[in-house]
Amino acid sequence: MRKNSVKNTRINGEVQRVLAEIIRGEIKDPRISPWTSVVAVEVAPDLKSCKAWISVLGDEEVRKATMEGLESAMGFIKRQLARTVNLRNTPEITFVSDESIEYGVNMSRRIDEVIAQDEAVKKP
């Protein structure tokens, strides 16, 4: 199976959807922030490993606690994934912290500040 085949793309999307549902609704760990989202998932062509990029809205402490909570719930997450997604192998999941959403929000805020300063200079 090629890396970007239709089948692999479909599997990536399904695993991402199911992981998001498990993290959002089934894990009861208080360390996991309610503002956690699964940004992307990449399942290896042999279906034995998987990288999941996780974005957490909050400061570094909240992000770290959420990643620790996800690592400790790994067995539960893998079992739920195996029950929901019918794959030949259930992949070993590696969680990767993704800060692109927070970066985008900060850049948008900075752009708005520059526009406001520019308009303030033009008014007099």
Describe this structure in words.
- 55% of the residues lie in helices and 18% in strands.
- It is an alpha+beta fold and 124 residues long.
- The termini are far apart.
- The chain has helices at 6-26, 60-72, 74-84, 100-122; strands at residues 36-43, 49-56, 92-97.
- The chain contains 4 helices and 3 strands, in the order αββααβα.
- It has one domain: K homology (KH) domain (GMP Synthetase, Chain A, domain 3, 2-Layer Sandwich).
- It is elongated and about 70 Å long.
- The mean pLDDT is 88.
- A 3-stranded mixed sheet has the order 1-2-3, sandwiched between helices.
- The longest helix is centred in the C-terminal third of the chain and has 23 residues, at 100-122.
Catalogue the unreliable spans: none
Number of strands: 3
User: Any idea what the radius of gyration is?
Assistant: 19 Å
What is the molecular shape? elongated
What string gives the helices and strands in order? HEEHHEH
Assigned CATH superfamily? K homology (KH) domain
The CATH architecture category equals 2-Layer Sandwich
- Total of domains: 1
The oligomeric status of these chains comes to single chain
- The main sheet orders its strands as 1-2-3
Strand content: 15-25%
Look at the structure and give the CATH class: Alpha Beta
Helix content: 40-55%
Tally of individual helices: 4
**How much is the average pLDDT?**
88
Provide the structure class.
alpha+beta
